[in-house]
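Before the break, one more example. Copy the sequence into your notebook; we will annotate it together after we see the structure.
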Amino acid sequence: MAIRFGKEGIGGIGFAGLVLIHPYFWGKDPIGNEEKESEFREGAFEFWKLACPTTTGPDDPLVNPAADPDLGRLGCSKVVVAVAEKDFLSDRGRYYCEAVRKSGWKGEIELLEAKDEQHVFHLMDGGCENAVAMRSKICSFING
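Here is what the structure looks like once it is written out:
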């Protein structure tokens, strides 16, 4: 959505920032821990096909925005990506941050990593220390 907004815009509407919390990104080539988890990789892509039956494959920019040649056209000035250290998808969040930095995009990107946590931990225990810290950082990002 942020790339599309950067390319097409909508008259009279601004898009200041993007918050991605434990994003479900994917790709054809395994990265990080994915190399050790071939069965999980297969299931993760099958799940994506269920969510998006018209997908063009694992490098579809909808699930692998790092593969989008227009990544550098994000239509906002700041991005924050939150990952959980023990989340199987955390390497993809980190990879996305690297890809955005290399894309030529002129905004600011920040990676928030919650140590010793799993995917969507903040939904399971919203009062835990890491959830409170993440929420605080995201609120600062939005209000800053």
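The two ends are 22 Å apart (CA to CA). The chain has a mean pLDDT of 94. Try to locate both features in your own notes.
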